Amino acid sequence: MALETFSNPRPERDYDIVIESPEFTSVCPKTGLPDFGTITIRYVPDQLCIELKSLKYYLLDYRNKGIFYEAVVNTILDDLVAACAPRRMEVTGAFTARGGITTNVVARHPA
Amino acid sequence: MALETFSNPRPERDYDIVIESPEFTSVCPKTGLPDFGTITIRYVPDQLCIELKSLKYYLLDYRNKGIFYEAVVNTILDDLVAACAPRRMEVTGAFTARGGITTNVVARHPA
Amino acid sequence: MALETFSNPRPERDYDIVIESPEFTSVCPKTGLPDFGTITIRYVPDQLCIELKSLKYYLLDYRNKGIFYEAVVNTILDDLVAACAPRRMEVTGAFTARGGITTNVVARHPA
Amino acid sequence: MALETFSNPRPERDYDIVIESPEFTSVCPKTGLPDFGTITIRYVPDQLCIELKSLKYYLLDYRNKGIFYEAVVNTILDDLVAACAPRRMEVTGAFTARGGITTNVVARHPA
Amino acid sequence: MALETFSNPRPERDYDIVIESPEFTSVCPKTGLPDFGTITIRYVPDQLCIELKSLKYYLLDYRNKGIFYEAVVNTILDDLVAACAPRRMEVTGAFTARGGITTNVVARHPA
Amino acid sequence: MALETFSNPRPERDYDIVIESPEFTSVCPKTGLPDFGTITIRYVPDQLCIELKSLKYYLLDYRNKGIFYEAVVNTILDDLVAACAPRRMEVTGAFTARGGITTNVVARHPA
Amino acid sequence: MALETFSNPRPERDYDIVIESPEFTSVCPKTGLPDFGTITIRYVPDQLCIELKSLKYYLLDYRNKGIFYEAVVNTILDDLVAACAPRRMEVTGAFTARGGITTNVVARHPA
Amino acid sequence: MALETFSNPRPERDYDIVIESPEFTSVCPKTGLPDFGTITIRYVPDQLCIELKSLKYYLLDYRNKGIFYEAVVNTILDDLVAACAPRRMEVTGAFTARGGITTNVVARHPA
Amino acid sequence: MALETFSNPRPERDYDIVIESPEFTSVCPKTGLPDFGTITIRYVPDQLCIELKSLKYYLLDYRNKGIFYEAVVNTILDDLVAACAPRRMEVTGAFTARGGITTNVVARHPA
Amino acid sequence: MALETFSNPRPERDYDIVIESPEFTSVCPKTGLPDFGTITIRYVPDQLCIELKSLKYYLLDYRNKGIFYEAVVNTILDDLVAACAPRRMEVTGAFTARGGITTNVVARHPA
User: Fold this and answer.
1) Do the Cβ atoms of C23 and H34 come closer than 8 Å?
2) Chain J residues bordering chain I (beta-carbon distance below 8 Å)
3) Among A41, D21, E77, J37, which is 20 to 30 Å from B43 by CA?
4) A-contacting chains (≥3 CB pairs under 8 Å)
């Protein structure tokens, strides 16, 4: 689903927005089993802010998608940057343990 | 309600005051449903300090006001800066989950 | 009560001493009701260290004194600096909630 | 077992991968008794990412190996750097208490 | 008891070793009553690492020794620096409350 | 707003439903200031279960109502019992601190 | 998917098995949005124990199924009782917040 | 100060009221030094409930009173029972550490 | 290795001994991969107490043994009961997550 | 040192006193190494209460005494029962880990 935005109410000021979604789930392309994790988005908006309801539906689209952890985080970052052109953005995916091993991925724009 | 101030007892020294109000509530302008959150104010006073009782009543005025998260935090920052002209101030709003998604907003003066 | 000091056993080395007193209480000058809080003192001694027992009695002297939060922290900092002339010192007062609002005050020497 | 890698899906961007394995165990070469700990690997991939399943089997190979804490952490760092040539990597071993004493070892590449 | 050392297995790399001993006890020289605390040692070894068993016995030697907090931490730092000549070292003593007041002491080499 | 119910899908079995609403707020009839708390409802349904959305709107009706803690909890219990005639029900209100004092109220049906 | 069982290795002794699955997800039949929760199964086996891998696949089958909380818990209990005829069993579903309200459901066999 | 009461709004139902005051302080009659603790009152009201503001002032009266822990808890229980004649009441005092030793006292009516 | 015992120093009194070993590991007979968990033993000794060092070596013997969770707990209980004939004993195995599912097993003697 | 007592101020009422001493240390008779733990004493006084300062000195006497965990707890219970003849008493020793294994001992009077 398409990400929507709204006009930043204070574009003249640098400020931070932090959004946390602990109910992220996608599918491992190798095993076909579900992955679970928390996605955290931290950004300084420029002219546009991310609309939360469309973000929720955007994240829901991963529910039955086969995709690796690294691609999840980098793709969300790319899509959000494309949608709202933030001054700075960081996306973190903190995934639950598989085989006794836990993985986090953190990507930033600009790198 | 009007924010009140009192004279900073040590204007010759830079020091920090941190005020946390975990009982903030306002109304979502889109759904008409209440929002809840914790407002944290961190500042270095110049000539004036914020009087706590008037701050409490000032925050109570948001109880039945329709306003988005980003505007809550930026407006509180603007009003407090106007009232006490601090050397530095940061306002954080940590709002409770909606649709499984949690949002924080942090604004600073000077930016 | 007078603050006492003893000779710093290692004046040739910069090191930190952190003292936490979670049983601080004073009286609000406006309402006459008691305030409660934790006082934390963090310093690098020069020639003198603060003697703990005299510090305990010094803090006890606030028990029935009417004084605001900002003055508590700045006065403790002033008195301790006068007593031991530290290289650096920071005093924090973390006071319990009043009217649903919590306040911390942090002052440093040199500012 | 050999560490495997896969192509970094976003080599043009610096991003972090953090992998935590709380089920690490090896053997103390002095006493012959097992050691237990959590291994955390934090890195910025260049062209290659570490494949998680091969990492799991690689760490399992320590289960019956006699090796000191310092060597565990430095060897894992060396092997992982050799396998994936990361831009930056940090390996931490947080080992459980022995004789009432807990030890952590942290090594970084480049140093 | 004498502190023992062993050869650093990776002297060509700067890395951290953190050792925590939560079962430290000594005696207050003023009251004759026992003091309790956690000693944390964080260092970058040069040619030598501290051997853990000898460290344990070294710390046990404080059990019936009358010594103030500041001297405990500075003496442990001096002895360990003398024994292993580390590139950097920090010793922290976090002592339990006495008279409702808690004290931490932190010393570093080089200062 | 009216509480709604739906048919218990397993009336032949005694089972527990526990509902927690941490965003409850009402108004103190004495001071006119808002109260905040968490309402927890624990019940064994008979023929009817409480519909959650109507419960949410029912609890929202207290937002601007002047009512004491004891009456809040007993009234919610009465209204829920009237709406769904449960086999057993317990309502707890855990209210935030006022004047440094915290209050919980717990009522049960049948008493 | 079918639940599988294996022979209880100690049928002559009453003992407890507790299985927790924090990655449960299903779909709300009213809104079409996903629900998330933790399913806990506590039972005393008779002749048969639940095989964990088949339980995992059984729970995965709820991922795209529209079903209410009360039915989730009672259906899992019914299916598990049918599969392994335990001496006693309790199933708990602890679901994440929706509209600021959290729901747990607990069912037992025999009731 | 005198404890005040108000009419129990639901005398026909047994229900619990739990009041916690973490800011209790009195004076040790032996040393003259202040004691600190949390007083918790749990009761089933009969015809009368304890009014919170008068309870707060009642507890404040201990601030400069010399009294042992056991007497604090038993006296508060006696005074509250005399004031409101509850069906059941339990008073707990959880006092902070002195000389490394922590004390709780719990008294109940009827015993 | 053989479990050793020593004479109960107070056989005329029923008292509890609780032993927790968080570093248990065995091997899954199906996958050949290691399992990890915490074993807790709670018992009332009769004439004999379990000697801790021999218990440690006894538990170490599971390190490379292929055995299911249910058998681990029931076998430890059987072996300990055979060794020390306690008045009552309970053994709990709390195993770490596999495939997102956590399992505990609890067995008691007499059942 | 001798345990002292004082007259129970409310012998006509059964009430609980809970004393926790987290700074207990003794010596293992087998290894000569120190043991550490928390001693918790829970009792209903009859005519006498335990005086805290003498209890503190009584517990200090174990500092250089060689004694096993089971004997520590049973001896403390015996000595306290002999000193104050309580209606009921329970002594718990929660000792820190040795060889990765933690032990608690709990004894009660009357058994």
Assistant:
1) yes
2) 68, 70-71, 73-74, 98-108, 111
3) A41
4) B, D, G, I
Which pLDDT tens digit goes with each residue over F65-98?
Answer: 999 999 999 999 999 999 999 999 999 999 999 9
CB D19 within 8 A of CB D38: no
Q: Is the separation of the CB atoms in G35 and G26 below 8 Å?
A: yes
**Residue of J20, E52, D68, G81 lying closest to H101 (CA atoms):** J20
- Cβ contact E33–J96 (<8 Å): no
Per the DSSP assignment, residues forming a β-bridge with E42 are E18, E90
J84 contacts J44 by C-beta, under 8 angstroms: no
F101: enclosing H helix or E strand: strand F101-109
Provide CB contacts within 8 A for G72, sequence distance 6+: G24, G26, G37, G39, G62, G93, G105
| Cβ-defined contacts of A59-62 (< 8 Å, 24+) | A59/A21, A59/A24, A60/A1, A60/G33, A60/G34, A61/A1, A62/A24, A62/A25, A62/A26
CB atoms within 10 A of CB F62: 18
Residues of H in contact with C20 (CB under 8 A): none
| Spatial distance between the Cα atoms of G64 and G33, rounded to a whole number of angstroms | 10
Cis status of the peptide bond prior to I86, with omega within 30 of 0: no
State pTM to two decimals: 0.93
> Predicted confidence band at C1 (pLDDT cuts at 50, 70, 90)?
low
Q: Could you report the average pLDDT of every consecutive run of 10 residues in chain D (111 residues)?
A: 91 96 96 96 97 96 96 97 97 94 96 75
Chain-chain contact of H108 with J15 (C-beta, under 8 angstroms):
yes
Question: Nearest-CA neighbor of D16 among D81, D74, D90?
Answer: D90
What value of ipTM does the predicted structure carry?
A: 0.92
I79 classed as catalytic: no
CA distances from D9 to A78, D12, D84, F19 (A): 13, 9, 14, 44
Residues 6+ apart with CB under 8 A from E79: E3, E58
Mark A28-40 as b/e (b = at least 16 C-beta within 10 Å). eeeeeebbbbbbb
Q: Using an 8 Å Cβ cutoff, are I45 and I87 in contact?
A: yes
Residue of D nearest to A105 (CA): D17
Q: Which residues of D touch A99 (CB under 8 A)?
A: 52-53, 56
Is I28 one of the catalytic residues?
Answer: yes
Choosing among E6, E8, E16, E36, which should be mutated to test the D contact, i.e. which has the most D CBs within 10 A? E16
Residue among G62, G44, G39 at smallest CA distance from G8: G44
At B8, which amino acid appears?
Answer: N
Q: Residue J17 and residue I109: Cα distance in Å, rounded?
A: 33
d(CA F50, CA F60): 16
Kindly list the residues from chain G whose CB atom is less than 8 angstroms away from the CB atom of residue I100. 21-23, 56
Nearest in space to G36 (alpha carbons), one of G15, G19, G49, G22:
G22
Q: For H38-73, write each residue's pLDDT tens digit.
A: 999 999 999 999 999 999 999 999 999 999 999 999
CB neighbours of residue E45 within 10 Å: 27
Q: Is residue E40 within 8 Å of E20, Cβ to Cβ?
A: yes
E9-55 pLDDT, tens digit per residue, is 999 999 999 999 999 999 999 999 999 999 999 999 999 999 999 99
